[in-house]
Design goal:
Layout: H1 2-19, E1 22-23, H2 25-35, H3 37-58, E2 63-78, E3 85-104, H4 108-175, H5 180-214, E4 224-225, H6 242-252, H7 254-275, E5 280-292, E6 296-301, E7 307-314, E8 321-327, E9 329-334, H8 339-345, E10 348-356, H9 364-430, H10 436-471
Parallel strand pairs: 1-4
Antiparallel strand pairs: 2-3, 3-5, 5-10, 6-9, 7-8
Helix pairs in contact: 2-4, 3-4, 4-5, 4-7, 4-10, 6-9, 6-10, 7-9, 9-10
Length: 480
């Protein structure tokens, strides 16, 4: 009984721990990459590219088909073996094997394999880009939760100080050292901080729900993340010039590779269109056989009277009869040959070459060639535009990262100043040299400077990771 109770307690403990699991950033990113719908769709595109490649390679194999048929004929029909008209009922069976092989088709089969390989590579780049984007979205949403939690911690910590100040002020008011207005001012500050704490808690819940939705997790109530404090990690990327980052981005970024593959695909499509102008040469081979159960008639010589004499004409002028001797035959009905025997007795083979030369098809081929030439030029422009967009995005990310760093450094200096100002105001308030309103204002400025430092820190962390991503560091290898 005790063992059963212990097992039940342990099970409830495990379930409770599972329900209140706290997710790390790495776990969130990995979970998103495994379950995100957009990532799954990109993976399906990659699988389709494998199917297209398999189909393109299969075009080099011969086409082989086999057929068989069974029929029963009643009435006047042609015997499929003797080709004679017969009025009877008989069963017939036929079978065939045919094979075809394309010897030359304007190299279209070769181009299709090349196109399938490029298409698969493009799908892989699209999948990589999708994973990078999803990883960055998850990281941003995760850092937003951490920022909101850090802000809540600041507010709660400062509110503890405010409550202690209320107790001290009450004592001074009762002793007559401070006016009651100072106590009311401190209590008003406490009420305002309580409102800020509630708003900060709401912000945490909203950001957690946003992150859970991004991960496709529906259990919002039990979803939470680890309470980690991310520090700014030194990165060599921050010391590089924007030109170096752009050069690396053009070599590593998936959007450029996708645009490059689109140009190659358009070039292959143009070659495929031109291949329709060439003749097609194919070889074929066919084997067929047949069987029927209908009886047939054979002609036999009468052994008792092997020959007969018949008049075959007269001599012109004399009228003398011309006599001829012929075999004395009669027809005898015999049964059908055995099934196996008929299969090789009645078989046939056909083989040869077929040449198809295109002459005129209503300008369809010519129009297709012109259309693919235009698509090739358009894909080149798209590649050029993708490079320009990438340069613009890198410049923007570079400026944002530099600006975020300056903002963070300024926030640090502001916090130091506000902390000194707060400590000075607190000392003056404790000895009665300043009123509660001035002290509260100093405290509010100090609290806001802490919150601003948190915002600037996580803003810089995220924007630095964006810059690292453009430099070519995979999203799964970014260090926070």
């Amino acid at each position: 009984m005790k063992k059963s109770i212990l097992i039940v307690v342990l099970l409830f403990g495990v379930l409770a721990q599972a329900q209140h699991k706290k997710w790390t950033l790495k776990e969130c990113v990995e979970y998103a990459l495994e379950n995100n719908i957009s990532v799954k769709q990109s993976e399906l595109d990659l699988q389709l590219a494998d199917v297209d490649k398999m189909t393109a390679v299969g075009n080099f194999l011969p086409s082989i088909s086999a057929g068989a048929g069974v029929s029963e004929n009643t009435g006047l029909s042609f015997n499929p073996v003797t080709n004679n008209a017969q009025t009877t009922t008989f069963l017939s069976v036929s079978g065939s094997i045919n094979m075809g092989y394309t010897l030359f088709d304007g190299l279209r089969n070769v181009r299709q394999v090349q196109r399938a390989k490029i298409s698969k590579l493009s799908s892989q780049y699209s999948l990589d880009k999708m994973k990078d984007d999803i990883s960055l979205f998850v990281a941003n949403a995760y850092l937003t939760v951490i920022l909101n939690k850090a802000n809540l911690e600041v507010l709660q910590t400062q509110n503890v100080v405010t409550k202690e100040q209320i107790k001290r002020t009450e004592q001074l008011v009762e002793a007559g050292s401070l006016p009651r207005g100072d106590l009311l001012e401190i209590k008003a500050t406490d009420a305002s901080e309580q409102q800020s704490i509630i708003q900060a808690e709401n912000n945490i819940q909203i950001s957690l729900i946003s992150l859970a939705q991004l991960l496709l997790i529906k259990d919002y109530e039990n979803f939470d993340v680890e309470d980690e404090d991310y520090d700014i990690v030194a990165s060599q990327i921050a010391d590089k010039s924007v030109g170096e980052i752009i050069a690396s981005a053009k070599e590593s970024r998936s959007e450029i590779k996708i645009a490059e593959q689109s140009v190659e695909l358009a070039a292959i499509d143009l070659k495929l269109a031109k291949g329709l102008n060439y003749p097609t040469l194919s070889a074929f081979f066919g084997y067929n056989t047949r069987y029927t159960d209908t009886p047939s008639f054979i002609t036999e010589v009468d052994q008792d009277n092997p020959t007969v004499t018949q008049q075959i004409g007269t001599v012109e002028g004399t009228g003398q009869a011309v006599i001829g001797e012929f075999p004395n035959t009669f027809a005898t009905q015999v049964g059908a040959d055995p099934f196996i025997d008929q299969l090789y007795l009645n078989d046939g083979i056909a083989y040869g070459l077929q040449l198809n030369i295109p002459i005129l098809n209503g300008f369809s081929t010519k129009g297709n060639i012109q259309r693919n030439k235009i698509n090739l030029e358009r894909s080149k422009f798209q590649l050029e535009q993708a490079e320009l967009d990438l340069e613009s995005n890198v410049y923007q990310a570079y400026v944002d990262a530099k600006g975020a760093l300056k903002s963070y450094e300024a926030a640090e200096l502001a916090l130091e100043s506000q902390q000194l100002a707060y400590e000075y105001a607190k000392e003056r308030y404790d000895v009665g040299l300043t009123n509660a309103f001035d002290f509260s204002q100093s405290k509010v400025r100090f609290d806001n400077s802490k919150i601003e430092l948190n915002r600037a820190k996580y803003d810089y962390i995220f924007k630095l990771k964006v810059l690292e991503l453009y430099f070519g560091i995979p999203a799964t290898e970014l260090k926070f």
